[in-house]
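Hey, sorry to bother you again with one of my protein questions. A protein chain has come my way and I'm curious about its shape. It would help a lot if you went through both lines with me. I owe you a coffee for this, so here goes:
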Amino acid sequence: MKVLLVGESWVSRGENAVGLDVIGMSSYTEAAGSFMEKTGRYGIDFTYIPGHRASVDFPMTEEQMSQYQVIIISDIGSNSLLLHPKVQNNCERIPNRLRELSSYVKHGGGLLMCGGYMGFSGFMGKARFGITPLAKVLPVILLNYDDRIEEPSGVVPQIKVKEHPILEGVKADWPYFLGYNSLKAKEGAVEIASVNENDAFITVWDYGKGRAGIFASDIAPHWAPPAFLDWESYGLFFANYLKWLGHEI
C-alpha cells in the first residue's frame, strides 16, 4: 500500500564562542528513516516529504492526495501545510490543504497524526491543529494550549482494547515513553490505549468513508527512546495501524 509521510525532520542552529570569535553552526536531521525501513518490511510503500519541503511539496488537492491510501502527519505544525510560498510571498490564493485533507478522509482516505513537540497543539500551542479544518477529523479533542506532558522517568501505555486488529501479533510488553501530547478521546472513538489513565494514546474512528487515528507520542527520538525504536513489534505495530487506516485489515 502507498503511504505519504510528512514531517520528522529539523534544522538545528547554534553558536560556538572561541575566544573573542563566535562561530555559527547548523545541522540538518531526518528522523524518519528507521520508521520507514522497519514498517516498510510489511508491505508499506512510503513517499517521504521532510519538514522543510512540506509547504511546497505536500499535495495541493484531494485528488492529488488520493494516490495514497494513508497520509501520516508526524511532528510538524499546521503552518507548514497551510502557508505555501505563493501565499506568503505573492499573496496568491491556493486551496486550504487541511480542508482538502479533511475531504480526502471523508471520502475514503486514511489519516494518522503522530505526536511530538510540533504535533497536535504542540510546544507553546504552535502546532495549532485544533483550530484548523483537521480538528473535526481527528478522533481526539485537542487542547488550545501547550499539550506536552514530559515524563522523564518514563511512562508505559495501558492497552484497553486488546483484540483490535491494529494489535494483531504485537507483543504485550510495551516499552516506556519519555513524553506525549495530552489528548482526550471523542465520543464514538475507540481508545485502544491510554497513558496516565486519562489521556488517549492510540485512538481511532471512522470518519465518513475513511478512517483517522492518532499516536500521541514520537515515532522517533526524543520521546521515543531506544526501548521503543528497537522494540520487536515496532514495525509490525505501525504496519498494522496503516493497513487498518487504509482498509486493508
